[in-house]
Write a structure and sequence with these properties.
Layout lengths: L8 H16 L3 H27 L3 H8 L7 H8 L1 E5 L12 E8 L2 E8 L5 H6 L7 H16 L4 E7 L6 H5 L2 H14 L4 E10 H8 L3 E5 L3 E3 L3 H8 L6 H7 L4 H6 L5 E3 L10 H20 L3 H18 L1
Helix pairs in contact: 1-2, 6-8, 8-9, 10-11
Amino acid sequence: MRHTLDFEKTISDLQDKIEKLKDSGSDKTSLVEVNEQIEEIKIRIDKKLSDIYKKLTPWHKLQVARHPERPHFLDYVKTLFQDFEPLSGDRLFKEDPALLCGFATFDGKSLMIMGHEKGKNTEDRIKHNFGMAKPEGYRKAIRLMKLAEKFNLPIITFIDTPGAYPGVGAEQRGQSEAIAKCIEVSLNLKNPTISIIIGEGGSGGAVAIATTNKVLMLEHSIYSVISPEGCASILWKDTKYAEEAASSMKITAQDLKELNIIDSIILEPTGGAHRNPSQTIKNVGNAIRSTLKQVTSLDKNELLNQRKNKYLMTINQS
Protein backbone atom coordinates (compact mmCIF):
# COMPACT_ATOMS: atom_id res chain seq x y z
CA MET A 1 0.00 0.00 0.00
CA ARG A 2 1.31 3.43 -0.97
CA HIS A 3 2.34 5.75 1.85
CA THR A 4 -0.05 8.72 1.59
CA LEU A 5 1.03 12.19 2.68
CA ASP A 6 -1.24 14.41 4.79
CA PHE A 7 -2.00 16.87 2.01
CA GLU A 8 -2.92 14.07 -0.42
CA LYS A 9 -6.10 12.93 1.39
CA THR A 10 -8.40 13.79 -1.53
CA ILE A 11 -6.18 11.68 -3.80
CA SER A 12 -6.28 8.81 -1.33
CA ASP A 13 -10.09 8.95 -1.21
CA LEU A 14 -10.29 8.74 -4.99
CA GLN A 15 -7.86 5.82 -5.07
CA ASP A 16 -10.04 4.03 -2.51
CA LYS A 17 -13.00 4.52 -4.85
CA ILE A 18 -11.07 2.84 -7.65
CA GLU A 19 -10.34 -0.18 -5.44
CA LYS A 20 -14.03 -0.48 -4.49
CA LEU A 21 -15.06 -0.26 -8.13
CA LYS A 22 -12.61 -3.01 -9.08
CA ASP A 23 -14.27 -5.28 -6.54
CA SER A 24 -17.80 -4.43 -7.68
CA GLY A 25 -17.81 -5.63 -11.33
CA SER A 26 -19.28 -9.09 -12.01
CA ASP A 27 -20.57 -9.38 -15.61
CA LYS A 28 -19.39 -7.95 -18.94
CA THR A 29 -21.82 -5.03 -18.91
CA SER A 30 -20.93 -3.92 -15.41
CA LEU A 31 -17.21 -4.38 -16.12
CA VAL A 32 -17.43 -1.95 -19.04
CA GLU A 33 -19.20 0.59 -16.86
CA VAL A 34 -16.73 0.05 -14.02
CA ASN A 35 -13.75 0.56 -16.34
CA GLU A 36 -15.26 3.79 -17.65
CA GLN A 37 -15.78 5.06 -14.10
CA ILE A 38 -12.24 4.06 -13.15
CA GLU A 39 -10.79 5.95 -16.12
CA GLU A 40 -12.82 9.03 -15.18
CA ILE A 41 -11.50 8.87 -11.62
CA LYS A 42 -7.92 8.44 -12.86
CA ILE A 43 -8.30 11.62 -14.91
CA ARG A 44 -9.58 13.42 -11.81
CA ILE A 45 -6.62 12.09 -9.80
CA ASP A 46 -4.11 13.35 -12.38
CA LYS A 47 -5.77 16.78 -12.39
CA LYS A 48 -5.83 17.00 -8.60
CA LEU A 49 -2.21 15.82 -8.34
CA SER A 50 -1.14 18.46 -10.84
CA ASP A 51 -3.00 21.20 -8.93
CA ILE A 52 -1.70 20.06 -5.52
CA TYR A 53 1.94 19.71 -6.56
CA LYS A 54 2.00 23.12 -8.24
CA LYS A 55 1.17 24.72 -4.88
CA LEU A 56 3.32 22.75 -2.44
CA THR A 57 4.59 24.67 0.57
CA PRO A 58 8.17 24.14 1.82
CA TRP A 59 6.74 21.93 4.58
CA HIS A 60 4.92 19.81 2.00
CA LYS A 61 8.09 19.53 -0.11
CA LEU A 62 9.96 18.35 2.97
CA GLN A 63 7.43 15.52 3.34
CA VAL A 64 7.78 14.62 -0.35
CA ALA A 65 11.59 14.66 -0.07
CA ARG A 66 11.35 12.21 2.85
CA HIS A 67 8.83 9.90 1.18
CA PRO A 68 10.04 6.31 1.75
CA GLU A 69 9.14 5.28 -1.82
CA ARG A 70 11.34 7.85 -3.57
CA PRO A 71 14.10 6.19 -5.58
CA HIS A 72 17.27 5.79 -3.54
CA PHE A 73 20.95 5.84 -4.49
CA LEU A 74 21.10 2.13 -5.29
CA ASP A 75 18.05 2.48 -7.56
CA TYR A 76 19.94 5.06 -9.62
CA VAL A 77 23.05 2.88 -9.65
CA LYS A 78 21.10 -0.14 -10.88
CA THR A 79 19.41 1.75 -13.73
CA LEU A 80 21.83 4.43 -14.87
CA PHE A 81 25.28 2.93 -14.36
CA GLN A 82 27.05 -0.17 -15.53
CA ASP A 83 29.91 -2.21 -14.05
CA PHE A 84 29.48 -0.72 -10.57
CA GLU A 85 32.40 -1.87 -8.42
CA PRO A 86 31.84 -0.94 -4.74
CA LEU A 87 34.91 0.20 -2.81
CA SER A 88 34.84 -0.05 0.95
CA GLY A 89 36.57 1.24 4.05
CA ASP A 90 38.44 4.37 5.09
CA ARG A 91 41.68 2.46 5.87
CA LEU A 92 41.49 3.89 9.39
CA PHE A 93 38.48 2.41 11.19
CA LYS A 94 35.80 0.51 9.22
CA GLU A 95 33.32 0.49 6.36
CA ASP A 96 30.33 2.86 6.55
CA PRO A 97 27.20 1.45 4.83
CA ALA A 98 25.38 4.81 4.94
CA LEU A 99 27.67 6.32 2.28
CA LEU A 100 28.37 3.99 -0.64
CA CYS A 101 31.12 4.57 -3.19
CA GLY A 102 32.65 2.87 -6.19
CA PHE A 103 33.77 2.91 -9.80
CA ALA A 104 31.15 2.63 -12.55
CA THR A 105 30.57 3.47 -16.19
CA PHE A 106 28.00 5.86 -17.63
CA ASP A 107 27.42 5.90 -21.38
CA GLY A 108 30.57 3.83 -21.68
CA LYS A 109 32.76 6.30 -19.75
CA SER A 110 34.41 5.48 -16.44
CA LEU A 111 33.74 7.58 -13.35
CA MET A 112 33.45 7.49 -9.57
CA ILE A 113 30.02 7.57 -7.94
CA MET A 114 29.09 7.93 -4.30
CA GLY A 115 25.85 8.51 -2.46
CA HIS A 116 23.86 8.21 0.74
CA GLU A 117 21.68 5.13 0.94
CA LYS A 118 18.70 5.24 3.33
CA GLY A 119 17.35 1.74 2.73
CA LYS A 120 13.89 0.58 1.69
CA ASN A 121 12.57 -1.41 4.66
CA THR A 122 13.21 -1.50 8.39
CA GLU A 123 16.04 -4.02 8.20
CA ASP A 124 17.65 -2.17 5.29
CA ARG A 125 17.33 1.22 7.01
CA ILE A 126 19.01 -0.06 10.14
CA LYS A 127 21.79 -1.61 8.03
CA HIS A 128 22.42 1.71 6.25
CA ASN A 129 21.88 3.79 9.42
CA PHE A 130 19.05 5.71 7.70
CA GLY A 131 21.57 7.36 5.36
CA MET A 132 23.42 9.09 8.21
CA ALA A 133 27.14 8.67 7.61
CA LYS A 134 29.76 8.52 10.35
CA PRO A 135 33.34 9.90 10.15
CA GLU A 136 34.58 6.75 8.44
CA GLY A 137 32.06 7.36 5.66
CA TYR A 138 33.44 10.80 4.91
CA ARG A 139 37.03 9.61 5.24
CA LYS A 140 36.21 6.86 2.75
CA ALA A 141 34.80 9.53 0.42
CA ILE A 142 38.02 11.54 0.79
CA ARG A 143 40.14 8.50 -0.05
CA LEU A 144 38.11 7.71 -3.15
CA MET A 145 37.85 11.33 -4.31
CA LYS A 146 41.64 11.42 -4.36
CA LEU A 147 41.73 8.07 -6.16
CA ALA A 148 39.36 9.41 -8.83
CA GLU A 149 41.50 12.53 -9.15
CA LYS A 150 44.60 10.37 -9.68
CA PHE A 151 42.97 8.77 -12.73
CA ASN A 152 41.22 11.99 -13.81
CA LEU A 153 37.76 10.45 -13.50
CA PRO A 154 34.63 12.57 -13.05
CA ILE A 155 32.88 12.20 -9.69
CA ILE A 156 29.09 12.12 -9.34
CA THR A 157 27.57 12.25 -5.86
CA PHE A 158 23.98 11.55 -4.81
CA ILE A 159 22.79 13.29 -1.66
CA ASP A 160 19.94 11.92 0.44
CA THR A 161 20.55 12.27 4.17
CA PRO A 162 18.91 13.96 7.16
CA GLY A 163 22.47 14.79 8.25
CA ALA A 164 25.66 13.20 9.47
CA TYR A 165 25.21 10.76 12.35
CA PRO A 166 25.20 12.73 15.64
CA GLY A 167 26.07 9.85 18.01
CA VAL A 168 28.71 9.97 20.73
CA GLY A 169 31.00 7.50 18.96
CA ALA A 170 30.91 9.53 15.75
CA GLU A 171 31.83 12.70 17.65
CA GLN A 172 34.64 10.89 19.46
CA ARG A 173 36.06 9.77 16.12
CA GLY A 174 36.07 13.33 14.74
CA GLN A 175 32.82 13.81 12.83
CA SER A 176 33.22 17.56 12.32
CA GLU A 177 36.87 17.23 11.25
CA ALA A 178 35.99 14.49 8.75
CA ILE A 179 33.25 16.64 7.20
CA ALA A 180 35.47 19.74 7.07
CA LYS A 181 38.30 17.77 5.46
CA CYS A 182 35.88 16.28 2.93
CA ILE A 183 34.73 19.78 1.93
CA GLU A 184 38.34 20.96 1.67
CA VAL A 185 39.29 18.03 -0.57
CA SER A 186 36.17 18.55 -2.70
CA LEU A 187 37.08 22.19 -3.29
CA ASN A 188 40.60 21.36 -4.45
CA LEU A 189 40.00 18.41 -6.73
CA LYS A 190 41.37 18.79 -10.25
CA ASN A 191 38.76 16.51 -11.85
CA PRO A 192 35.12 17.33 -12.77
CA THR A 193 32.51 16.91 -10.03
CA ILE A 194 28.70 16.89 -10.04
CA SER A 195 26.24 16.41 -7.18
CA ILE A 196 22.52 15.63 -7.29
CA ILE A 197 20.25 16.12 -4.30
CA ILE A 198 17.68 13.37 -4.74
CA GLY A 199 15.83 13.66 -1.43
CA GLU A 200 17.03 15.33 1.75
CA GLY A 201 20.16 17.43 1.66
CA GLY A 202 20.68 17.80 5.37
CA SER A 203 23.36 19.90 7.05
CA GLY A 204 27.11 19.21 6.82
CA GLY A 205 26.33 15.59 6.08
CA ALA A 206 25.10 16.74 2.67
CA VAL A 207 27.54 19.62 2.07
CA ALA A 208 30.50 17.28 2.61
CA ILE A 209 29.94 15.57 -0.75
CA ALA A 210 27.93 18.33 -2.47
CA THR A 211 30.74 20.89 -2.79
CA THR A 212 31.01 20.25 -6.51
CA ASN A 213 31.31 22.09 -9.82
CA LYS A 214 27.61 21.66 -10.50
CA VAL A 215 24.84 21.07 -7.97
CA LEU A 216 21.52 19.74 -9.27
CA MET A 217 18.32 19.19 -7.28
CA LEU A 218 15.22 17.17 -7.93
CA GLU A 219 12.15 19.40 -8.07
CA HIS A 220 10.73 18.34 -4.70
CA SER A 221 13.96 17.68 -2.80
CA ILE A 222 15.27 19.95 -0.04
CA TYR A 223 18.70 21.29 0.95
CA SER A 224 19.38 23.05 4.24
CA VAL A 225 21.99 23.78 6.87
CA ILE A 226 19.79 22.13 9.51
CA SER A 227 16.48 20.30 9.55
CA PRO A 228 13.38 22.45 10.18
CA GLU A 229 12.77 20.43 13.35
CA GLY A 230 16.31 21.17 14.54
CA CYS A 231 15.95 24.84 13.67
CA ALA A 232 12.64 25.06 15.55
CA SER A 233 14.11 23.37 18.63
CA ILE A 234 16.94 25.94 18.70
CA LEU A 235 15.04 29.14 17.87
CA TRP A 236 11.66 28.40 19.45
CA LYS A 237 12.69 25.65 21.88
CA ASP A 238 9.80 23.63 20.44
CA THR A 239 9.63 21.40 17.35
CA LYS A 240 5.96 22.30 16.82
CA TYR A 241 7.28 25.36 14.95
CA ALA A 242 9.04 23.17 12.37
CA GLU A 243 6.58 24.12 9.62
CA GLU A 244 7.23 27.83 10.25
CA ALA A 245 10.97 27.16 10.22
CA ALA A 246 10.72 25.31 6.90
CA SER A 247 9.01 28.32 5.32
CA SER A 248 11.70 30.71 6.59
CA MET A 249 14.79 28.65 5.76
CA LYS A 250 14.61 28.65 1.92
CA ILE A 251 15.03 24.88 1.71
CA THR A 252 13.33 24.22 -1.63
CA ALA A 253 15.00 23.74 -4.99
CA GLN A 254 13.13 26.75 -6.35
CA ASP A 255 14.37 29.07 -3.57
CA LEU A 256 17.93 27.78 -3.81
CA LYS A 257 18.02 28.21 -7.58
CA GLU A 258 16.86 31.79 -7.18
CA LEU A 259 19.63 32.36 -4.61
CA ASN A 260 22.22 30.75 -6.97
CA ILE A 261 23.05 28.09 -4.38
CA ILE A 262 22.33 25.35 -6.92
CA ASP A 263 22.75 25.27 -10.69
CA SER A 264 19.62 23.57 -12.00
CA ILE A 265 16.40 21.79 -11.09
CA ILE A 266 15.49 18.34 -12.40
CA LEU A 267 11.76 17.96 -12.96
CA GLU A 268 9.86 15.17 -11.22
CA PRO A 269 6.79 13.36 -12.61
CA THR A 270 3.39 14.73 -11.57
CA GLY A 271 2.79 13.68 -7.97
CA GLY A 272 6.47 13.38 -7.06
CA ALA A 273 9.32 10.98 -7.70
CA HIS A 274 7.70 8.27 -5.57
CA ARG A 275 4.80 7.95 -8.02
CA ASN A 276 7.00 7.26 -11.03
CA PRO A 277 10.55 6.28 -9.97
CA SER A 278 11.54 5.05 -13.43
CA GLN A 279 10.74 8.40 -15.08
CA THR A 280 12.51 10.24 -12.27
CA ILE A 281 15.65 8.16 -12.75
CA LYS A 282 15.46 8.76 -16.50
CA ASN A 283 15.22 12.54 -15.91
CA VAL A 284 18.24 12.41 -13.61
CA GLY A 285 20.18 10.43 -16.21
CA ASN A 286 19.47 13.05 -18.87
CA ALA A 287 20.57 15.81 -16.49
CA ILE A 288 23.81 13.97 -15.70
CA ARG A 289 24.48 13.48 -19.41
CA SER A 290 24.15 17.18 -20.27
CA THR A 291 25.98 18.40 -17.15
CA LEU A 292 28.88 16.00 -17.68
CA LYS A 293 29.44 17.53 -21.11
CA GLN A 294 29.73 20.95 -19.50
CA VAL A 295 32.21 20.06 -16.76
CA THR A 296 34.37 17.61 -18.72
CA SER A 297 35.04 20.31 -21.30
CA LEU A 298 36.88 22.39 -18.67
CA ASP A 299 40.59 22.07 -17.90
CA LYS A 300 41.96 21.67 -14.35
CA ASN A 301 42.38 25.39 -13.70
CA GLU A 302 38.90 26.17 -14.97
CA LEU A 303 37.41 23.50 -12.71
CA LEU A 304 39.21 24.89 -9.68
CA ASN A 305 38.25 28.47 -10.50
CA GLN A 306 34.64 27.50 -11.05
CA ARG A 307 34.45 26.01 -7.55
CA LYS A 308 36.36 28.95 -6.06
CA ASN A 309 33.93 31.42 -7.61
CA LYS A 310 30.96 29.29 -6.59
CA TYR A 311 31.83 28.78 -2.94
CA LEU A 312 34.75 30.86 -1.66
CA MET A 313 33.70 34.13 -3.31
CA THR A 314 30.21 33.71 -1.87
CA ILE A 315 31.66 33.20 1.61
CA ASN A 316 33.83 36.32 1.31
CA GLN A 317 30.94 38.42 0.05
CA SER A 318 28.66 37.32 2.88
